[in-house]
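hiii, so i know i said id send this last week but things got crazy w the move. better late than never?? heres the sequnce for the chain we talked about at the cafe, plus the structure i predicted for it. fair warning i was half asleep when i ran it
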Amino acid sequence: MEKKIDNMLFIPEEDPYYYASSNVLGTIDKIEKLSKRHPVNVLIAGKQGCGKSSLVKQYAAVHRRPLATFQVGILSEPGQLFGEYALEGGETKYKQFLFPQALQTPNCVIHLEEINRPEHPKALNMLFSILSDDRQVWMDELGLLKVAPGVVFFATLNEGDEFIGTELLDAALRDRFYLMLMDYLPNEVEREILINKTGITGKQADDIIDIANALRSNPTLLTEISTRTTLMIAEMVSVGATLAEAISNSVQTNKEALESLLISLHMEKGYLEMGETEYLLYTRDVLLKGESRPLAENPPEEKMACSQHA
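okay and structure toks below
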């Protein structure tokens, strides 16, 4: 379970089924060693849903470090990470946020999530000195802030035209980071994760991965089927959804193209249960009684009531 450091910082819980490549783990090991000498900056780039944020959390959990995560996408002006002026008791006072506390906490892991998605590019200007060799910044409201020993900054990003609202990361800012590239997991590793994390059978996991690979290779869908997505599909299957239902509810893409592909896969391999659609009464009373009847089986007065409320 999470271990509380103070009122706002926590050591996250370790994921017992987290997998990463030997290259990634080798780099992470070196980052841990370098952090014993001085604070370190790491930029993790990769496709959406390939495990970038999970890696940051797992690193903090494994090394028993407090973790603080900040959404860069909400930043619209310089200094917004540090705090803001707010009206309190009829007076305007400066309210300090978590970021100054985190960067002054020894061995803290600071996650700058989607660092290339600020509302305004200049919102990151005050990070330059924090991430440079100087490792300090002066603020009139807070005084001199120095980065504590052992702090590791992780920045994660999705880059490319398909990611709306992203900006190319400033070259001067990017130059302050070690770079790690991540990709999707191999099928055999993804299979183990689906089984261990959701409790589905090996056959169900194989079917999900087969279809995920078919979707990944289909250029008309214009979507990435990440491990995050296959986990969502597996979770739906684990609670009784058909594979077709789970995919339709988890994959956000052109629904007509997706349905056409699912039908062709059903005709080819036969392992997609298409199911039948019927309309059932959904009320709290029905749920408490544990029974539900199709509309066609309703008595005449129920049908009339339904039509009156339609």
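btw The mean pLDDT is 81. thought thatd interest u
miss u guys!!
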